[in-house]
Amino acid sequence: MITLKNVNKSFASLKVLNDISVNFEAGKTNLIIGQSGSGKTVLLKSIIGLHEIDSGKIFYSDRDFTAMNLKSRKNIRQEMGMVFQGGALFDSMSVEENVLFPLDMFSKMSDTEKMDRVNFCLNRVNIKNSNHLYPTEISGGMQKRVAIARAIALNPKYLFCDEPNSGLDPVTAIVIDNLIQEITKEFNMTTIINTHDMNSVMEIGEKILFISKGFKAWEGTKEEIFDTDNQALNDFVFASDLYQKIKKVNR
Ligand SMILES: Nc1ncnc2c1ncn2[C@@H]1O[C@H](COP(=O)(O)OP(=O)(O)OP(=O)(O)O)[C@@H](O)[C@H]1O
Predict the structure, then answer these.
(1) 175-216 pLDDT, tens per residue?
(2) Concatenated DSSP letters for 147-197?
(3) 2 bridge partner residues
(4) Which of 11, 44, 85 to mutate to test the pocket of ligand 1 (most atoms within 8 A of CB)?
(5) Do residues 249 and 226 touch, judged by C-beta distance below 8 A?
(6) Partner of 161 for a Cys bridge, out of 56, 83, 93, 152, CB 3.0 to 4.6 A?
(7) What is the DSSP secondary-structure string of 80-91?
C-alpha cells in the first residue's frame, strides 16, 4: 500500500498538486487519470521521489518516505519497478541485457541466478527466443513487454507505469494492460499507472484517482465511474460519443 497525505507541490508560483490524499492498494491496479496538464506526471514523480514535495507525507506501507534520508530512499527504490513512457529500453543493449541491467546493478545474485531470473521474467511476459535481439528489432508491443520484464526483475513491491500503452494499437494496448494487472495480482504489487486511455480505465480500473487542475476531484472504481455526478469527471470520461453511449446502456 502507498498512502499520500495532504501532498502539495509547486514550481515557483505554479501550484501543481493541491492537498492530495489517497491510498493506493496492494494487489490492485491503481490508475491516475486526468486531462493533459492536470498534474499526473508530477504526482507520479513525487511518489517515487524524483520531485521533492513542498508539504504532506508519502508512506510506503508504514514507512514514511518523506522523512527518509538518502540511504533509506536508495534501499526503498530497489523495491520499485518502473515502466516509462515509450518503454525507455537501452537501444545499445539486447533484450537480455536490458533485463539483466537492474540485476547487475542492485542484486548480489550469481551469474547463473541472474540469467535464470532474466529468463523467468522474459518468459512471464511471453517473450521467447528473443534474448539476443535489440529493441529496434522488435515491435512496440514487445518493447513494452521487455520493459515490464525489466521492471519486475528485482521482484518489486511497487510498480509504476507512465502511459504504459502509449503508441500501441488498441488490441496490443489491452494485452499490455492485462499483463500488468495479472502480474500485479501474482506478485501482490502496489501498481500505480498514469493513463489518458479510457479503454485502460474500463479494462483495469480497480482503483481510479481522477485529478483536475492538481486537485483530487474523484476516486472510485471503473464500475462507479458511470454513476458519478462529478462534472469534471463526466467531461473527461464522456468526451467521446462511444462512452456516452456506454453510459446510457449502463443506466
Ligand atoms: N519541472 C517542472 N517545472 C515547472 N513546471 C512543471 C514541471 N513539470 C511539470 N510542470 C507543470 O506542471 C503541470 C502539470 O504537468 P504534468 O506533466 O504533471 O501534467 P500531466 O497531467 O502529466 O499531463 P500529460 O497528460 O500531458 O502528460 C503543467 O502545467 C506543467 O507545465
Answers:
(1) 999 999 999 999 999 999 999 888 899 999 999 999 999 999
(2) HHHHHTTT--SEEEEESTTTTS-HHHHHHHHHHHHHHHHHTT-EEEEE---
(3) 24, 60
(4) 11
(5) no
(6) 83
(7) EEEE-TT----T
Helices 140-151 and 111-124, interaxial angle, to 10°? 130
**Residue carrying C-alpha cell 501550484:** 15
Please compute Rg for the chain using Cα positions: 19
Q: Share the mean pLDDT of the chain.
A: 92
Give the pLDDT score at 3: 98
3-state secondary structure of 233: helix
Q: Complex ipTM, two decimals?
A: 0.97
Structural domains of the chain ordered from first start: 2-88+158-250 (3.40.50.300)
Question: Which residues have C-beta within 8 Å of that of residue 200, sequence separation ≥ 6?
Answer: 31, 165, 173, 177, 193
13 lines ligand 1 (CB under 6 A): no
Kind plus residue range of the DSSP H or E element containing 10? strand 2-11
Total residue length of the chain: 251
Q: Cα–Cα distance between 27 and 183 in angstroms, integer?
A: 9
- Number of CB atoms found within 10 A of residue 165's CB: 27
Residue 47 CA to ligand 1 centre (angstroms) = 15
Above pLDDT 70, what percent of the chain?
94
Atom 2 of ligand 1 has which residue's CA nearest to it? 11
Amino acid code (one letter) for 31:
L
Using CA atoms, how far apart are residues 73 and 123, in angstroms rounded to an integer? 30
